Q: What sequence folds into this?
C-alpha cells in the first residue's frame, strides 16, 4: 500500500481482469454529458463499467449499488463537484480510490477538467497515476461511529442561540467558550467551511485536526491545531446538533463526542497532468472559477 499522500506516479502491470469502474454522479445535463462521454471512452479501452442506480437512463450500463461496488470495482469515477465526491465516499465507506471529474464550479477535490477526460481515461488504462491517501476522521456519538472527510460542525439545535462548547485534549481542557458553533476539520476540510470561518490551511499530508470556533463571543477563542494521535473530546452544556460533512445532521444529548483520526481513509486518484494543489488553493482563496481555457 502507498504511504500517506504518496505522490510518486506508478505504471502498473496488466491486471488479471479488465479495469472495473463504478460511475457516480450528480444530477444535471453537464454531468450526464460527461458520463456518456466517459462510458464510451472507457468501453473503447476495454474497461468494465457499471453505474450507481441514480445515473441517467440514457447511460446504458449495468446499475450497481454501493455495497456491491465496494467488492467489484477498482476505482470510483465521480462526476460533479466536491459535494458529489463526499457523497460517493460515504456510499462506499472510503473503500475505493476515487477520481473526480469536475462538472461544477470550483471543484477543489476534483482531479479532471471536462476537457481532460480523454487523457484521464488513457492514464487509467496505462496505469499512469498515483493514489494519494489522506487522513479522515471518525466521530464516536453514543455507541455509533460516523466517518467524515471534511468536518464535523457542532451547534445548538436553535440557530439563534449561542452554545457553550468545551474541547478536551488528552483529558485536559484546551478551550471553552460561547459561540455559534465549532468546526472540527481534517486537513482536507481545512480548505472548506473551516477556512471560511477563519481557520488555517493544513497541509493535506498532515495527520491533524483543526478546531475552529464559529463567531465566538470572546475574541480570545481562536482556532487550534492538534495531532490526530491525541484523544479529542468536544462537549456542550446542552443538547447539540452535529452535522457530518454537510450531509448528515444529528441531534445529540448529552452532547459529548470523541473524535479520532483514520490514516489513509480517503484515497484520491492523482494524474500527472492535473492542476497542482497550490494553484487550486490560490483559486480557493481568491474565489476564482477555473478559466474557460481549462474547461
A:
Amino acid at each position: 500500500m502507498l504511504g500517506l499522500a504518496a505522490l510518486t506516479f506508478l505504471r502498473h502491470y496488466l491486471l488479471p481482469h479488465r479495469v472495473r469502474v463504478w460511475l457516480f454522479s450528480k444530477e444535471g445535463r453537464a454531468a450526464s454529458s460527461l458520463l456518456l462521454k466517459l462510458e464510451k471512452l472507457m468501453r473503447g479501452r476495454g474497461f468494465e463499467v457499471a453505474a450507481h442506480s441514480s445515473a441517467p437512463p440514457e447511460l446504458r450500463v449495468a446499475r450497481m449499488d454501493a455495497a456491491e461496488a465496494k467488492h467489484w470495482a477498482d476505482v470510483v469515477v465521480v462526476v460533479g463537484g466536491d459535494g458529489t465526491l463526499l457523497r460517493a465516499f460515504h456510499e462506499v465507506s472510503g473503500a475505493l480510490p476515487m477520481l473526480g471529474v469536475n462538472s461544477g464550479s470550483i471543484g477543489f477535490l476534483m482531479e479532471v477538467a471536462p476537457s481532460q477526460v480523454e487523457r484521464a481515461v488513457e492514464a487509467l488504462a496505462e496505469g499512469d497515476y498515483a493514489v494519494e491517501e489522506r487522513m479522515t476522521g471518525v466521530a464516536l456519538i453514543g455507541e455509533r461511529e460516523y466517518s467524515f472527510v471534511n468536518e464535523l460542525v457542532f451547534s445548538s439545535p436553535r440557530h439563534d442561540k449561542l452554545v457553550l462548547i468545551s474541547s478536551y485534549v488528552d483529558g485536559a481542557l484546551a478551550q471553552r467558550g460561547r459561540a455559534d458553533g465549532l468546526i472540527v476539520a481534517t486537513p482536507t476540510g481545512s480548505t472548506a467551511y473551516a477556512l471560511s470561518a477563519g481557520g488555517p490551511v493544513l497541509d493535506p499530508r498532515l495527520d491533524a485536526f483543526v478546531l475552529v470556533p464559529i463567531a465566538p463571543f470572546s475574541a480570545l477563542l481562536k482556532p487550534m491545531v492538534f495531532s490526530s494521535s491525541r484523544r479529542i473530546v468536544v462537549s456542550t452544556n446542552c443538547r447539540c446538533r452535529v452535522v457530518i460533512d454537510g450531509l448528515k445532521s444529528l441531534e445529540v444529548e448529552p452532547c459529548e463526542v470523541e473524535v479520532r483520526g483514520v490514516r489513509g481513509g480517503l484515497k484520491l486518484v492523482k494524474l500527472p497532468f492535473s492542476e497542482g494543489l497550490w494553484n487550486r488553493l490560490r483559486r480557493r482563496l481568491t474565489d476564482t472559477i477555473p478559466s474557460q481555457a481549462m474547461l
In short: Helices lie at 29-44, 66-72, 82-92, 117-126, 193-196, 277-286. The radius of gyration is 20 Å. The chain has six helices and 17 strands. Residues 1-16 have pLDDT under 50 and may be disordered.
